[in-house]
Amino acid sequence: MSVPASVDLTTLENELLHEISSAGDLPALEAVRVSALGKKGRVSELMSRLGALPVEEKKTFGAAVNILKSAVSAALDARKSVLEASALNERLNTERADVTLPVRLGPVAEGRIHPVSQVLDEVIEIFADMGFAVAEGPDIETDAMNFDKLNIPAEHPARQDHDTFYFSPGSDGTRLLLRTHTSPVQIRTMSTQKPPIRIIAPGRVYRCDSDQTHTPMFHQIEGLVIDETTHMGHLKWVLEEFCKAFFEVDEVKMRFRASHFPFTEPSMEVDIGAEAIGKPGQWLEILGCGMVHPNVLRNCGLDPDKYQGFAFGMGLDRLTMLKYGIPDLRAFFSGDLKWLRHYGFGVLDVPTLGGGLSS
Ligand code: PHE
To answer: Quick one: pLDDT at residue 161?
Structure first.
């Protein structure tokens, strides 16, 4: 078999290099590669002819074909990088991201934060800023925690004020109950932590009561500060700072009325001037408070001659109704989606003191 002259190789090389340089995209280039270097490609075919050649020619022709092969491979690689770069540029030119567009929330925008959860976050934010930690206690309590240790012995008239849900007595005669207030968390905290203590304790509480402003389950926030020097001036300051921050006003009128709780002495109820919520001329009761009773300190193993402090308790649902103008408490717990869409908050409306609590 006669061997093709080296001219043939030059022509083939020129042809292939031309095909390579005119391949307009990656698939076209791949087709050229297969037609040249593929198993049955034109270069591979030359290789398979080598066997039939006389030894001398085999050498020179083989070397020439190898040079051709490398030249074609190099050209293919070079063209491939050019085409890849232009494909990327093409994408970069057509697929634009406008980073100034507003965030698309997708399904996140569907959900609403319940107003009580939002207000809880607001309250925690305010007290955390004043150095309070958040404490918790169980919803199911003992008589001792909910009443006795808080200086409310059996037969005390205050027990009648709390329409308590009791469980059936256990085999040992003890009766568990649904806590009627968050004050048992005071006891749990003082019995397990050494002063100085500075906590708030939010949570669910239960009383057998239901009308427009009462539901059998509602939410309270307890506050407790115990050390060796805390006095009523501090109590008044903390509550005033809280009210200003919570209602987002510079001034708030507050009225401290003498009251009675068995676990504080003296005890007070606090009203705020309703101008804070845009209704001048009225007083609104928002919380109960007082200096922790020496008996309560003693019941928790603290020496009342050494330690003193204050406690307060407020209704979270009531604060929510006042701040956001929600008229009926029962709707809070009715699971009505229409209501939640109206009064609820966006998932990303996280309250912060710096960014404005409710804006
Ligand atoms: N526990 C009281 C209530 O539920 C509120 C309160 C707490 C009063 C702490 C004084 C001190 O009514």
So the answer is: 67
Which atom of ligand 1 is the closest one to the Cα of 220? 4
Sites in the chain below the pLDDT cut of 70:
1-7, 161, 359
Specify if 102 maps to a domain. no
Distance 314 CA to ligand 1 centre (A): 7
**Closest to 315 (Cα-Cα) out of 215, 190, 185, 188:** 215
- Per residue in 327-342, pLDDT (tens digit) is 888 899 999 999 999 9
Nearest-angstrom CA–CA distance, 284 and 257: 12
- Within a domain: 150: yes
- Closest to 290 (Cα-Cα) out of 230, 214, 217: 230
Contact between 330 and 215 under an 8 Å Cβ cutoff? The reply is yes
Rounded CA-CA distance 321/314 in Å is 13
pLDDT at position 5 is 47
Residues 204, 219 contacting (CB under 8 angstroms): yes
User: pTM of the full predicted structure?
Assistant: 0.71
Distance 157 CA to ligand 1 centre (A): 15
* Closest-lying ligand 1 atom to the alpha carbon of residue 289: 10
- For the chain, first and last CA: distance in Å? 91
Residue 101 lies in a domain: no
Distance of alpha carbon 340 from alpha carbon 343, whole angstroms? 5
* Domain range for 131: 115-343
Ligand 1 binding residues, C-beta < 6 A: 181, 183, 222, 261, 264, 288-290, 311-313
Q: Which of 142, 33, 42, 25 is nearest to 84 (CA)?
A: 25
Residues 136 and 238 in one domain: yes
